[in-house]
Amino acid sequence: MKLHVSTTRIDDIAPFLAHIDPRDPLLFIRRGDGIAGIGEAVRLEFSGPERMRDAAEAWRRLAAEASVDDEVALAGSGLVGFGSFAFSDDSEAVSVLIVPKIVLGRRDGVDWLTRVDGADFGERFSLGDEVHLQLDEPSFSADEYAASVERAVEAIGRGEVSKVVLARPLDAELPEGADLRRIARDLAFAYPDTYTFAVDGLIGSSPETLIRSEKGELSARVLAGSAGRGTDAASDAAAALALATSQKDLDEHAFALRSLLMSLDGYASRILTGESPFTLKLPNLWHLASDVTGQLTGDSSSLDLIDALHPTAAVAGTPTADALRLIAALEPFDRGRYAGPVGWVGADGDGEWAIALRCAQVVRAPAGETATIRAFAGAGIVAESEAGREVAETTMKFMPIADALG
After folding, report:
1. Hey, what domains does the chain have and what are their CATH numbers?
2. Are 211 and 305 in contact (CB under 8 A)?
């Protein structure tokens, strides 16, 4: 398949945003910079243990055959594919790479427009009504989640794992004609320092960079360990200090950071990170965070890198294989693409990928039936974890998507 891709600089992308499909937007932005897609020129689907490796090979072939005229030459211009990948090797959820017919981009004060095969914009959509949904517990309740946490702590005590990340879902009916652009807009406004994304019905706002590669430079941000914000300046400062000195949270963070550094071995050199994590302030939470930088070795693409990195200890546990088996035993549901890689890849293999957290997946329904949307939140369980605290942590982590939906 040979695509002709043309990117030109424009004065302002804002007038064109009304062409984004309200039922199925494509979006990946942070701090006002990023890309949005309109339509589908190419859709590639993958599944199974080799899904990211297969995607990397398929993308190389597609990019090699494409003809690209790019006068902008910024990250996200030219040929790009939006991607979202299932968390589990045996998930029923399909993993996708989508090349839009049109891409609108903004970075460093530069706006651009990319067309694939001279595509036209098509229909304009007025902004729909506010979305008001009530998220409810499915069959896996908060009490059942607490029981799973207790079983996980017992498994840790037996030495089966050092850490395991357990998630729980909340469900809601999605009204016909709901404008998902409103959800993305609300998330981007409330959480500007996170990655707001919408890819194939998966929509959310993630604080965690899985990997970013640009011109041979790599960067990632590890988040593990969290605490709620205080109600005033004094209590907020106390919450941050308590998190920064919590051995339980420091241990959880160390597992996640070590996992990332080990996974980058063989792909990067001159890897740098701080001696200790810093406290990252979000509107609803404090996180322990570590930034990692390095230089790419070889010709690996960002899709190769997400294959090597996923799943990190931040979303699975340590040791990874044992943690995944425990997750399968304790979570009676398919995570789908929650906690999997979400982001974009360019023609040269560079890209920007987050971990799909603070998100919800739209589940389309046959004609005449009501669509649903499922939100997810998880917490890292270590030896010192208490079930009640972990339920409260997941409740806090539901807040971004719950507020955007409600």
Report:
1. 4-405 (3.60.120.10)
2. yes
Cross-strand partners of 376? 169
Supply the residues annotated as catalytic. Answer: 163, 208
List, edge to edge, every strand of the sheet that includes 110-116.
67-70, 4-10, 110-116, 102-107, 33-38, 26-30, 195-199, 202-206, 359-363, 371-381, 163-174, 317-318
Residue with tokens 């297969």: 54
Query: CB within 8 A of 321, min separation 6: which ones?
Result: none
Number of H helices, E strands in the chain: 8, 22
Instruction: Report if pTM > 0.90.
Output: yes
Determine the residue type at 67: S
Asked if 298 and 40 count as a contact pair (C-beta separation under 8 A), the reply is no
Q: How far is the C-alpha of 174 from the C-alpha of 188, rounded, in Å?
A: 21
The model's pLDDT over 84-115, given as tens digits with 9 standing for 90+, comes to 999 999 999 999 999 999 999 999 999 999 99
| First-residue to last-residue Cα distance in the chain | 43
Tally of CB atoms within 10 A around 321: 10
